[in-house]
Amino acid sequence: MNLSYSIKCFLLFILIAGIFLLPRATSAQEMEQVARSKIEGTIQDTNKEPIPEVKIGLKHIETGLTFKSESNKKGEFLFSSLPPGKYSFLIEKAGYQNKAGEFELLPNTLKKLQIFLDKEETPEHKQEREAISFFDEGAKLAGENKLDQAIQAFQKAVELKPDFAEAYLNIGILCFQQQKDDEAEKALLKANELKPDEPKAKQILADIYYEKSKTLIQSEKTDEALEKLKQAYSLNSNHAYVNYLLGILYTNKEMKEEARIHLEIFLKLDPKSPLAEKAKQILESLKNKFYNPNTAR
Asked: Which domains does the chain have, with CATH numbers?
């Protein structure tokens, strides 16, 4: 009786144990069946060039399982037999900005990814980006006629990027508009140094030197005025009134050939100028060897 009772108890234990073990086996079997999802993708830079040896890490959020892969020479990577669910990911490569995030993977699917990595920002790149931001702000403020604020924004741009020729040019233009000729000249000379092929800086510098030469002539500092006009002419030989004043000063110095050249250029550039008739008279009088230079004043 005792033996029979013992056998019954043993069989009952086996039955109970089987009840508890069966769902576990089924659960693992189900996991095996649904773990068929795959991820394949490519990793490229912003120029669409493949990036090899990029580390890709996945974490299955529900279970905590982690999966790792690495891109090949073509920038390709693959994860196979992944359980479905939500994942977090981390993509790492020296010299590039890390990329992280989350996504959901559905059962029995192939998920294709195309990932772009930005190069890691150096301090120089950061300064350049900030300089461009200040430049854009300055352009916006200038468009709103907030000239002082615009100049300040452009000045911040050149502090961050000392070779920012366009910012120097805009400072020069705005200062010239405000009749701050000395500040304009300084900025435009820098712009011209950095970008000598840019004609705008040369044109405004020629205007500045022309205005300064007129002030010097009024103060009877004709030699200094002549030097300023020479500078203006070297920057913009098509400045009509620079040529006119050069013609006048050379006439007064009895440098007839130089005077003739510049007065003829003036008449060619601006034949309808109110000063055209006077220029013609001076040219005619230059032919007379007894010409009195005082008549050109």
From this structure: 34-117 (2.60.40.10), 122-197 (1.25.40.10), 222-297 (1.25.40)
